[in-house]
Amino acid sequence: MDKSVVSIVEALKLNAEITPDKLCVGDKKNKATYHEFWTMVQRAAVYLKDKGVKKGDMVVIRGAQKVEFLLGVFGVQLAGGAVCPLEKAIKDDRILEIMDFVDSNIYLADKAVKNESVNNISLKELFKAVQDEEHPIELVDFEFPKADELSEILFTTGTTGKSKGIEVTYGCDIFIAQNVMDSVEMGKDEVELITTPINHSLAIRRTYGAIYNGSSIVLTDGIKFVEDFFKLLDNYKITAITFVPAILEQVLKFAKDRFATYDHQFHYIQLGSAPLSETNKEILTKMFPTTRLYNTYGATESGCTVILEFSKYGDKKKCIGRTTVNTEILFVDDNRNRVEASLESPGILAFQGGMNMRGYYKEPEITAEVMDEQGVVYTNDLGYLGDDGLVYLLGRQGDVINMGGIKIAPTEIEEVVMKHEMIKDCACIPIPDEITGEAPKLFVALNDGYEFNQKELSKYMLSKLESLKVPKNFEIINEIPRTFNGKIIRKELKALNEGK
To answer: Which of 240, 279, 296, 297 lies 20 to 30 A from 486 at CA?
Structure first.
């Protein structure tokens, strides 16, 4: 890609000139080549400007796993605006709250929000208008966005639990796209299926990476209908897939054997937004012996920063892989001083590079909590760089169990427990201990038909773990609290424990 290109929408134009007939985007019903999609985006920009979108405007757009959504995003950006994508199931009251917060009165969606002050623009009508060849929208010249201009605001809850709007510039999108391409060795002729919600940072950035690369992207609405999933794999000759672990679980539950027959077709499968269990890593490695398998580490604030090819390095426990091409990793102490981190003395992970956010919208104090003046983003994760040059993660600060100076990763315990037939799900948290300072407590949800047998489970763990890592405190729970993408919500379990 030409290094003078500083926005994904400009990369779209360039690839429309280089490979006009290659598939750009597709879904269950519609698809478009690069030439077709670029023409549609130009028409969309004209249409949107006629509807009141001006340079610098923020347009709130509701998620939809369709070509129309991407048309709306790129149309707004070409028209000089920025986008704030929202989830598909969001309620009107919350939409209006967010619109007020991001200073927007323009809403782009299939269904209007009922408020007189809102300029509702129909995504359906936009899609129809750009395809109307009897009355084609006359194209005009547009000025492409600049690298330091705002591209989008992405909402995330993050570690504080407070919903925050992350400011992303066009230049940031380019650095993230390059990281995306590098992370999985994305080929020019890749056709990647995105199964995650398109408003989510993982999905939209995979899309940006593919378009910057000049390859192809296909959207699907999760795995609601297994037959639709396999039709897309066949009809588009999908070569790569992006999952979150929760959606992968559905495929493994309902169509594991059929899915495994595609090993010859896939170049890679990537999972992100949450760690993949060791059990599922092993299952996928056996199912897809010739497919590259990846688990991404990252955050909305920085995008994909570290990537593990677990089909290659699956034997390295606690490993999250190598840093991506534009990422510099740092390890710091509680005062943000750089340290030489090790297993015995882990450091807090921090990241520097052009992929980092500009900041949290209207939240300078919260921004300062995670980002310094040099643009370094600090996480709450503890880890170190191994002698092999790969990054190892122990877990979140506050989640890692400090037992008499020995750091225990809760995931190490959970991965062992999950392999026992009694256990449906589990989660481990640190609790105070008079002798060791902290000790592990295990919450377990049982499989149907089982009664909890602590003696049996402890004996099993002792066969797999050092004795000090085996919890002595247990609690039965109906369901382990998790986010939509599978992350354990440990703060709820800590609150539950404190309420005892």
So the answer is: 240
Q: Match 């390859």 to its residue by tokens.
A: 215
In this predicted structure, what is the pLDDT of residue 276?
81
Mind listing the pLDDT tens digit for each residue in 35-47?
999 999 999 999 9
Q: Which parts of the chain register pLDDT below 70?
A: 157-162, 485, 500
What are residue 447's phi and psi, to 5 degrees?
-70, 155
Amino acid letter, 77: Q
Contact partners, residue 24, CB within 8 Å, separation at least 6: 12, 15, 16, 32, 33, 34, 36, 37, 38, 211, 216, 217
d(CA 444, CA 344): 29
Which residues have a Cβ under 8 Å from the Cβ of 233 and sit 6 or more positions away? Answer: 193, 262, 265
For the chain, state the CA radius of gyration.
23
Name the one residue in this structure whose structure tokens are 């969606």.
Answer: 109
For residue range 319-357, list pLDDT tens digits in order.
999 999 999 999 999 999 999 999 889 999 999 999 999
- CA 314 to CA 287: how far, in whole Å? 14
**CA atoms of 187 and 185, how far apart (whole Å):** 6
CB atoms within 10 A of CB 36: 18
Which CB contacts under 8 angstroms, 24+ apart, belong to 251-256?
251/223, 251/226, 252/280, 252/283, 254/223, 254/226, 255/226, 255/229, 255/230, 256/283, 256/287
Helices 278-287 and 245-260: angle between axes, nearest 10 degrees? 30
